């Protein structure tokens, strides 16, 4: 991989146009001042999001849903991991036409923050019990290593917080214009081949800065990823700031610094600053980059308020200069780029740990869990001598510290819970967002749709499996929570017109996207073909058709992504 930091615009996403004699301020605090330029900035100045906890505990939990102030409900609640969920029965055609209060139910999604994806079995059991007691048994594993619960009533939130915090968990800044959960290598501290255990860096950032009012009013959400594993298992190219472990030829093991990645409706892959950070510099560098976003990020327009837009206008050289001169007060060492990842970053299957024991990675179908299954998973792990479980950025679960003679018994127990340690290639590569079942932004259903498609594809390839690993990402709207632009087959939810002229749930198709892996040097966005859409009921047909065409047409060891980018449009239909 080249050390050149010049952006490849065809691969990394569209650049923003430089302002020409800008007539309106961008809302950059260090340039334009801090006068609020939209309603979101106004409510944050009036009262910080962190302050709403006291009102939740002492006013709203006692007075019920009707007592909640509208600005708190639709704004500040997010700082504590709370969103109102979608009211059942509202179809996707009304998503963009109804007001939030018309779409929302009097129940909440509650996001449990799990920095680094590290859980004890005690913590896992508490989440499962909360799900059973307060969330109608719901639990979804996200592709950011969190667990989301649904059907939460405001009256229950203080008790939920009490139970979570009693075991070291919390929901602080799980949502909102804040530093979200820190993605971390799921095999931190245990993998035999890791370069460095990033856990100390993750903990330092979390303990120093999460919940700090100095970083609790950012232009928009802000995502962090840190890995010390050579598989580069934290999707670092699509985070606002990432640290990827490398072995520097002069300074030893440290981290390559990346900034400005994000997907959503305007995707942009992150870029290297060309800078290397020592482990003891990581927290300071994180603070510096986050401060740049706070002070120079664009706040006037919400759809331009991510760090990727600032990086697109500045470029990595200027960004690094501002970081070093205005925020760090010293120059970072230049560093080489990471080498190609050594293997899959989902860690599915059985792997030997550095201590001689084993960890086992398993795939729950599309991240759908339940309180009962979480509790049973904690019991299963403990019966096999483990007290540690990890979540992954691929909606997968790992059980650590298993003695060799107990591995097969654990795998059998995981299978009985619906967590496959030896999944089919399509089950292994499928993730799905929350979808219209709970999300107010969604247009189509995702979880059940994706699960049905996986099961149908498995039947069609029974005894043979797919011709090669294939990632299928299913998203309910254009915001790409399921990372559709970086999947072999990415499906972006929308209403489409069927052959009879009816509007039906469907998806726009993205093909051949992917992050750096053992099969590709660099991340790249998927290809779209004009008019290529698939109905929700036809996903299995489409995936089977395109997979078999790839198998017939591929040249040598050509990957699906390579084929998809060179194939004629007819072959992709």
UniProtKB/TrEMBL annotation:
Residues 14-27 have a biased composition (Basic residues). The keyword 4Fe-4S applies. It comes from the Bacteria. Keywords: 4Fe-4S, Heme, Iron, Iron-sulfur, Metal-binding, Oxidoreductase, Thioether bond. Residues 176-327, 428-570 form the Nitrite/sulphite reductase 4Fe-4S domain. The keyword 4Fe-4S applies. InterPro entries: NIR_SIR_4Fe-4S (IPR051329), NiRdtase/SiRdtase_haem-b_fer (IPR005117), Nit/Sulf_reduc_fer-like_dom_sf (IPR036136), NO2/SO3_Rdtase_4Fe4S_dom (IPR006067), NO2/SO3_Rdtase_4Fe4S_sf (IPR045854), NO2/SO3_Rdtase_FeS/sirohaem_BS (IPR006066). Gene3D superfamilies: 3.90.480.20, Sulfite Reductase Hemoprotein, domain 1. Residues 1-40 are annotated as: Disordered. Residues 102-167, 351-416 form the Nitrite/Sulfite reductase ferredoxin-like domain. It catalyses: hydrogen sulfide + 6 oxidized [2Fe-2S]-[ferredoxin] + 3 H2O = sulfite + 6 reduced [2Fe-2S]-[ferredoxin] + 7 H(+). Its EC number is 1.8.7.1. Residues 1-13 have a biased composition (Low complexity). Its cofactor is [4Fe-4S] cluster. GO terms for molecular function: 4 iron, 4 sulfur cluster binding; heme binding; metal ion binding; sulfite reductase (ferredoxin) activity. It is an enzyme of class 1 (oxidoreductase). Belongs to the nitrite and sulfite reductase 4Fe-4S domain family. Catalyzes the reduction of sulfite to sulfide, a step in the biosynthesis of sulfur-containing amino acids and cofactors. This is assimilatory sulfite reductase (ferredoxin). It comes from Microbacterium faecale. The lineage of its organism: Bacteria, Bacillati, Actinomycetota, Actinomycetes, Micrococcales.
């Amino acid at each position: 991989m080249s050390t050149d930091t010049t952006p490849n615009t065809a691969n990394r996403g569209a650049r923003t146009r430089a302002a020409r004699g800008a007539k309106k301020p961008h809302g950059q605090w260090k340039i334009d001042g801090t006068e609020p330029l939209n309603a979101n900035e106004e409510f944050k100045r009036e009262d910080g999001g962190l302050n709403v906890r006291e009102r939740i505990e002492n006013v709203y939990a006692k007075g019920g849903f009707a007592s909640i102030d509208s600005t708190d409900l639709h704004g500040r609640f997010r700082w504590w991991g709370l969103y109102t969920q979608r009211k059942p029965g509202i179809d996707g055609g009304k998503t963009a036409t109804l007001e939030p209060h018309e779409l929302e139910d009097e129940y909440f999604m509650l996001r449990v923050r799990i920095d680094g994806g590290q859980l004890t079995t005690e913590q896992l059991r508490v989440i499962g019990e909360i799900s059973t007691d307060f969330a109608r048994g719901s639990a979804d594993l996200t592709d950011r290593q969190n667990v989301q619960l649904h059907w939460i009533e405001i009256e229950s939130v203080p008790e939920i917080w009490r139970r979570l915090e009693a075991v070291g968990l919390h929901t602080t800044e799980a949502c909102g214009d804040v530093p979200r959960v820190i993605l971390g290598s799921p095999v931190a501290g245990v993998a035999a081949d890791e370069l460095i255990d990033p856990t100390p860096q993750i903990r330092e950032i979390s303990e120093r800065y999460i919940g700090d009012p100095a970083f609790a009013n950012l232009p928009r959400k802000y995502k962090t990823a840190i890995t010390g594993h050579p598989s580069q298992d934290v999707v670092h190219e699509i985070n606002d700031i990432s640290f990827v472990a490398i072995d520097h030829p002069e300074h030893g093991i440290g981290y390559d610094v990346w900034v400005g990645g994000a997907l959503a409706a305007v995707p942009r892959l992150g870029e290297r600053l060309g800078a290397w950070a020592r482990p003891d510099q990581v927290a300071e560098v994180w603070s510096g980059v986050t401060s740049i976003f706070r002070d120079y990020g664009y706040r006037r327009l919400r759809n331009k308020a991510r760090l990727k837009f600032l990086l697109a206008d500045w470029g990595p050289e200027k960004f690094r200069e501002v970081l070093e001169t205005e925020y760090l007060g010293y120059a970072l060492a230049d560093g080489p780029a990471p080498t190609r990842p050594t293997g899959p970053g989902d860690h599915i299957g059985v792997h030997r740990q550095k201590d001689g024991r084993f960890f086992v990675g398993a795939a729950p179908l599309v991240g759908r869990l339940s309180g009962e299954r979480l509790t049973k998973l904690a019991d299963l792990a403990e019966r096999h001598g483990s007290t540690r479980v990890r979540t992954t950025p691929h909606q997968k679960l790992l059980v650590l510290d298993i003695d060799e003679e107990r591995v097969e018994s654990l795998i059998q127990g995981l299978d009985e819970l619906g967590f496959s340690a030896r999944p089919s290639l399509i089950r292994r590569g499928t993730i799905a967002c929350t979808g219209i079942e709970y999300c107010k932004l969604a247009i189509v259903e995702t979880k059940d749709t994706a699960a049905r498609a996986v099961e149908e594809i498995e039947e069609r390839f029974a005894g043979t499996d797919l011709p090669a690993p294939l990632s299928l990402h299913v998203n309910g709207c254009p915001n790409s929570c399921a990372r559709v632009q970086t999947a072999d087959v990415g499906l972006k939810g929308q209403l489409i017109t069927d052959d009879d002229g009816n509007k039906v749930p469907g998806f726009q198709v993205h093909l051949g996207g992917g992050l750096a892996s053992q099969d590709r040097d660099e991340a790249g966005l998927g290809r779209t073909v004009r008019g290529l859409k698939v109905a929700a009921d036809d996903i299995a047909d489409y995936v089977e058709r395109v997979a078999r065409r790839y198998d017939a047409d591929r040249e040598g060891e050509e990957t699906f992504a390579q084929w998809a980018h060179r194939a004629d449009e007819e072959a992709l239909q």
